[in-house]
Amino acid sequence: MVAIEVILGDITRLDVDALVNAANESLQGGGGVDGAIHRAAGPRLAKAGAALGPCRPGEAIATPGFDLDPPVRHIIHTVGPVWEGGGSGEAEVLAACYRNALETAGELAAGTVAFPAIATGVYGYPAGEAARIAVRTLRETPTEVEKIFLIAYDEESHEVLRAALAEE
Predict the structure, then answer these.
(1) Which segments constitute the Macro domain (predicted)?
(2) Domains of the chain, each with CATH number or no CATH
């Protein structure tokens, strides 16, 4: 089983082989973690995203890490579901985000991967439920990835992710 660790910090500052971006469909940058990754990786990331997009919810598309420091080989973009109350297939799409991003990381021979909390910001997915889906999906998806980091940007998110990891 893959090792999973929860970390409080800035996803753009991690020394990993790949990091996952909670992107929008255009892949050209936005707010939250997406905006932070785009700022840290530099303008070539938006150009690469424009050439590859759109990305549908649940899919995963990889680009180089460009100017991230420390250097990251790959950024894996995935688009989470917009929360509509839970009856519109949101859980399945969110699980697909984690599964497809992890499978992409494996295809890229990434040994270490950092994931943000996908869809819990502006897309409105309830944090606790999203964390449980993330942990369950990452544990159930076969992979050659050696270590997964779940990155929390604040103390509240950190506690939610730690609780979900402890439940599994």
Answers:
(1) 1-168
(2) 3-167 (3.40.220.10)
